[in-house]
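User: Here's a structure from my thesis project, written as structure tokens. My advisor, Dr. K., wants to see whether a designed sequence matches the one we expressed. Can you design one independently, without my sequence as a hint?
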């Protein structure tokens, strides 16, 4: 099963910055594991795995400025 990870609650922001990527393609993650950290002009937030699986794709890079509706990571289970 393919799981596309996006920002769950953009809180009114249109863009965010990718601060840190905590996983690599091929990593196995559990539900709740931190995948990456993003920043708005008000706060930093962790993006966590909504389910367990294997990291298939990382579609952003550190320091990217991205729209909040962009797919960040793809997991497979």
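Assistant: Designed independently from the structure alone:
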């Amino acid at each position: 099963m393919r799981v596309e990870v996006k920002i769950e609650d953009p809180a009114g922001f249109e863009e965010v910055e990718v601060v840190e990527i905590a996983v690599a393609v091929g990593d196995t993650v559990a539900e709740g594991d931190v995948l990456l950290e993003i920043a708005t002009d008000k706060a930093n937030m962790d993006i966590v795995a909504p389910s367990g699986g294997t990291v298939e794709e990382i579609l952003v890079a550190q320091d990217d400025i991205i729209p909040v509706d962009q797919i960040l990571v793809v997991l497979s289970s």
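When you compare it with your expressed construct, this may help: The first strand starts at residue 2 and ends at 5.
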